[in-house]
Design goal:
- The protein is an alpha/beta fold.
- Helices cover about 35% and strands about 30% of the residues.
- It has an eight-stranded mixed sheet with strand order 1-2-4-3-5-16-6-15, sandwiched between helices. The chain has a four-stranded antiparallel sheet with strand order 10-12-8-13, covered by helices on one side.
- The longest helix has 22 residues.
């Protein structure tokens, strides 16, 4: 079965919805225009229930099937990124400093398209919980919605989500059982020395030399403290120190990110970073503190749900059901910790990459995503004969 005909017929409407959402990007939990647009479309579609204001601007909508049954959750993230847009498109962002550079406007549209189909056909037994989530980008909105009770209050049994994938042909799906995206942590190291004139370094306690040595030592964690076949990324992404060419500053700050799949590897990284920071501080005569923050956990697909979801995707298009896991992160992990389910990618074609100021969601992708969501419900919740 390819893209569902009735969804394909509505592609102009879906594209118009998506492009409107692209013009009004909002970030984190402050998605008031976006949420209002989604709620208005859901009312037009004729869903059975709309619950607004969850986690500030999140929405859960319910569609009942022809007979009682289980409840399947379908999630779409709605938020944009706090960055400027450089596409020059007619539907470019009208909000300065905000842009849909990750395709959440497309994800929202795909779920709205599936909602429209499911509300009309209701060719299933049970319920669909349409979960429109704020703050995937840095706000852990999925965690907030789970704690607000969206999975418990609506008796969700399983939950699924999609993300677009630039560089993969339009409509081609891929996923993998077990871990599919990494846990994401952040660290900050603050180094305090004694500043002074650059011509007289012997009168100072230089925080910059200590910072450089710490960065070099941190890079050895991946190469010398963990098994080479276990996925681990440690990236130092910022070093801040000084402001004048001939002054040694008092302090320096190091920031970075850590990506892991295994909690034991994560714990090892923390322990080694604490040892390195303390040891290097003593070696250079500075004081230093490590602030290590655990972020979103690894996104782990339920194996059985993944096999099922991949079989549905293969009915719509092709699907690689054993793709390589990725070191990016996704807060859908919190929903998968609470319920079995699966996270899949769908190809967005030859577009700019995610989080790129020239990125734009490919409107052709929406028909594949909407068809996947709709067909998944019909397969997961068949009407008994």
């Amino acid at each position: 079965m390819p893209v569902l005909n009735s969804i394909a017929d509505r592609m102009p409407q879906l594209a118009a919805w998506r492009r409107h959402l692209h013009t009004i990007p909002e970030v984190r939990f402050d998605l008031h225009q976006t949420a209002a647009f989604v709620a208005d479309r859901l009312r037009e579609i004729g869903v059975d229930e709309i619950h607004e204001g969850i986690a500030t601007t999140g929405i859960v909508a319910i569609i009942n099937g022809q007979k009682p049954g289980k409840t399947i959750g379908l999630r779409a993230d709605m938020d944009a990124l706090p960055m400027g847009e450089e596409t020059g498109l007619d539907h470019a962002s009208q909000h300065a400093g905000a842009m849909h550079a990750c395709g959440h406007d497309g994800h929202t549209t795909m779920l709205l398209g599936a909602a429209q189909y499911l509300a009309e056909t209701r060719n299933f037994a049970g319920r669909v919980a349409l979960i429109f989530q704020p703050a995937e980008e840095g706000g852990s909105g999925a965690d907030v919605m789970v704690k607000a009770g969206v999975l418990d209050d609506f008796d969700v049994d399983q939950v699924y989500a999609l993300h677009n994938a630039p560089g993969t042909p339009v409509g081609q799906f891929f996923t993998t059982p077990g871990p599919i995206m990494a846990a994401v942590d952040e660290f900050t190291i603050r180094i305090q020395g004694k500043g002074g004139h650059g011509a007289f370094p012997h009168d100072t306690v230089d925080p910059i030399t200590a910072a450089v040595s710490m960065v070099q030592a941190i890079q050895t964690i991946s190469s010398r403290n963990h098994y080479a076949l276990d996925d681990l990324v440690i990236s130092v992404t910022q070093i801040h120190a000084g402001s004048v060419f001939n002054v040694i500053p008092d302090s320096a700050v190091i920031n970075g990110t850590v990506r892991t799949f295994d909690p034991a590897v994560q714990a090892m990284v923390v322990a080694r970073m604490e040892q390195i920071v303390a040891g290097q501080a003593t070696s250079f005569g500075v004081t230093a503190t490590l602030d290590y923050g655990n972020g979103d956990p690894a996104t782990v697909n339920d194996p059985d749900c993944t096999v099922f979801a991949a079989s549905v995707a293969a009915e719509i298009s092709s699907c690689d059901a054993n793709a390589t896991r990725e070191m990016g992160a996704e807060d859908f992990s919190y929903m998968l910790q609470a319920r079995p389910g699966a996270y899949l990618f769908v190809g967005n074609g030859d577009t700019a990459g995610l989080h790129n100021p020239k990125y734009d969601f490919n409107d052709e992708t929406a028909a594949y995503g909407a068809s996947f969501f709709a067909r998944l419900i019909e397969r997961a919740l068949p009407i008994p004969s």
